[in-house]
Amino acid sequence: MVSESAIKELTARQREVLEYVLQFQSDIGRPPTGPEISTRFGFRDHSSAYQHLKALQKKGYVELMPQGRGRQIGFKLGPNATQYMAPSWSVLGSIPAGPLTDVVVNGDHKVSNLPDLIPDLRPGDFILIVNGDSMIEEGLVPGGYVVVRPNAQPEQGDICAVWVDGEGGTLKRVLQTPEGVKLVPANRKYRTMIYPAEEVRIQGVVVASFAVQSFRRGGFRRAV
């Protein structure tokens, strides 16, 4: 996501040019030419349009393409342009869920996609929906989501997605012991299970979790 600070680095005219370029791309299916930009903004010569595009290129919004002598300016949208168009939501701060205290509002941070919420998300990570309550004391609630890293080397006590031969998959804290692999729940209703190491496969280490709830009349209802 393009940060608020990066957006604020654009001058008013640069933002106008960028928004015109994005709207033109959406309507016509291609970026506008230099003359089209000059006509739209009343520039006397095309070099003014080129200077604005060079400034936008430095900030990652467009990528200028080499052109022959006398040819029109060629460019394509850069990575920040796509993110500039993406919807985002302000994170205004935190609110107490206990005693009443002052609420500090700060709207500088916005989120538009999962990596905004989980900055350490990496290619290859996958998401599983939690089914059951055996890990509820770790905050892994039924219907919630866990982010699993398949190639991470599990450390003693990590919460992992585990496959046990002949039984199936589960989400548990993993302990390697002389007696075997202990799969430890986070709910007193369940007991620790021990399996021979050769029967246990670690499918990935849990690196993050999140839950999604939507408000409905009559209370909170988990959205799964």
Keywords:
Arc Repressor Mutant, subunit A; Umud Fragment, subunit A; single chain; 13 strands; alpha+beta; elongated
Q: What is the CATH homologous superfamily assignment of the largest domain?
A: Umud Fragment, subunit A
Secondary-structure-based class equals: alpha+beta
Please state the CA-atom Rg, rounded to the nearest Å: 26 Å
Q: What is the strand tally? A: 13
Distance between the termini: 25 Å
Mean pLDDT: 81
| Shape descriptor | elongated
Sequence of strands across the biggest β-sheet: 5-6-11-7-8-9-10
Number of domains: 2
> Major β-sheet, in short?
7 strands, antiparallel
**CATH class membership of the largest domain:** Mainly Beta
Q: What is the CATH topology of the largest domain? A: Umud Fragment, subunit A
Question: What fraction strand?
Answer: 25-35%
Element-by-element helix/strand order: HHHHEEHEEHEEEEEEEEE
Residues in helices, as a percent range: 10-25%
Protein model, in words:
By secondary structure, the chain is an alpha+beta fold. The chain has 2 domains: 4-85, Arc Repressor Mutant, subunit A; 121-214, Umud Fragment, subunit A. 24% of the residues lie in helices and 32% in strands. The protein has 6 helices and 13 strands. It has a 7-stranded antiparallel sheet with strand order 5-6-11-7-8-9-10, with no helix packed on it. The chain has a two-stranded antiparallel ribbon with strand order 1-2. It has a two-stranded antiparallel ribbon with strand order 3-4. A hairpin with an 8-residue loop joins strand 1 and strand 2. Helix 2 (12-28) crosses helix 4 (46-58). The two termini are 25 Å apart. Residues 1-8 have low confidence and may be disordered.
